[in-house]
Amino acid sequence: MRDARVSIGELSRRTGCNIETIRYYERIGVLPPPDRVGRYRRFADADIRRLGFVRRARELGFTLDEVRALLQLSQSDGRSACDDVRRISAAHLSAVRARIADLRAMERVLAKTIRECGSGGHSGCPLIEALGGNSL
Amino acid sequence: MRDARVSIGELSRRTGCNIETIRYYERIGVLPPPDRVGRYRRFADADIRRLGFVRRARELGFTLDEVRALLQLSQSDGRSACDDVRRISAAHLSAVRARIADLRAMERVLAKTIRECGSGGHSGCPLIEALGGNSL
DNA sequence: CTACAATCTGTAGTCGCTACAGAAGCAAGC
DNA sequence: GCTTGCTTCTGTAGCGACTACAGATTGTAG
Fold first, then answer.
1. Choice among A38-52, A58-72, A75-89 with the minimum mean pLDDT
2. Fewer C-beta neighbours within 10 Å, C or N terminus of chain A?
C-alpha cells in the first residue's frame, strides 16, 4: 500500500487553505510540525483533519488563540472540557452579536444619509455635512 | 486676544482621539502637519474639525483610504464631488451589509450548536464535533 | 539533459492603531 | 536655584491573521 500522506499543495487543494497560511499555522504552533520526506512536508490524515477543524473554527470567527484552546480541549474529552468549550463559544457568540449591533448602527446611519443625499434639495452634500464637512 | 490653537493633549481630550493616533494620522497624511511653537504642535480650529470628520467617518467604518478620499471631496464642492461621495458611501454600505450577513451566518451556527450542547444526551461534545473534532 | 513545477526558508508588507524608550521642555513648589 | 512632575517629542516595534515575495533547491516529464 502506498503512502497516504499528502504534499502541502495537495493539502491546500483539499482544505481550500493557502499554502503560505498552512506554513504560518505551523510556525505559530496551531498545526504540529508534520513529517518530512527530505525537506518536504508530508501530511497525514490527522493533520488534514486538524487543519479542517482550524478552518471551520476560523470561519466561525474564532481567533487563533481560541482555536488553539479548542484544539487542546478537543484532545481531552470529558464533561469539564465540554463546559470549557461551551464557555469559549458563548463568549465568542456574545462578541459576534456585539459586532453585528455595531455594524447595524453603521448601516442605519449610512443608509439614512445616502437616502437624504438622493432626495436632493440640500445646499451642500448631506454625506459630507453629516461628517461635519460643511465646517471644513 | 490669546492664541486659540490647542496642544495635542487638548485636541485628544476634545475629540476623544488618542494622542498617538493623532500623530499617526499626521504621519500617514490623513491630517496635515500642524503649526508648531518650537517643537510642539498647535492645532487650529480647522485641524480640530478635520479630526472630528475623520473620527466620525471611522466610526461609520470607512477605511483610512476612504477617509482620505472623502476629505479630498469635502474640499472641492459641486455635484460631481457629491456623486463621488455617494458612490463611496454606497459601496461601503454594501460592504457593511455583506459583513453583517457573514456574522449572522456565524451567529446562527454558533447559537444552534451551543443550544444542542446544552440539551445533553450526546456522546462527545457537539461543539467539538461540529468542528470535526470527533475525528481528531 | 533540460525545462518546468512544486516546494523550501526567511523576510517584509498589509491595516489601524497602540505601546514603549529615551530625550527635551515647561511650570510650580521649596 | 533646584527638584519634581507633567507634557510632548521622535523613532521604533508590536498586535492579528495573513499574504507576498526573493532566491534556493528538489522532483518530474519530455
1. A75-89
2. N
Written as nine digits, the cell of A132 is 461635519
Task: Map grid coordinates 504540529 to a residue.
Answer: A32
| Closest approach of A11 to chain B, Cα-based (Å) | 16
pLDDT band at B75; cut points 50, 70, 90: confident
Among A11-20, A74-83, A117-126, B124-133, where is mean pLDDT lowest?
A117-126
> pTM for this one?
0.87
Residues in chain B within 8 Å Cβ distance of A74: 125, 128, 131, 133, 136
Instruction: Tell if the CB–CB gap between B77 and A107 is shorter than 8 Å.
Output: no
What is the overall mean pLDDT for chain A? 88
CA atoms of A104 and A63, how far apart (whole Å): 22
**Alpha-carbon separation of residue A41 from A30, A79, B25 (angstroms):** 16, 36, 44
Check B49 against A135: CB less than 8 A apart: yes
Q: What angle do CA B94, B98, A112 make, to 5 degrees?
A: 40
Alpha-carbon span A45 to A15, nearest angstrom: 12
CA atoms within 13 A on the CB side of B53: 28
φ, ψ (nearest 5 deg) of residue B97: -65, -40
Sort out which chain A residues have CB atoms less than 8 A from B100's CB and list them: 100, 103-104, 107
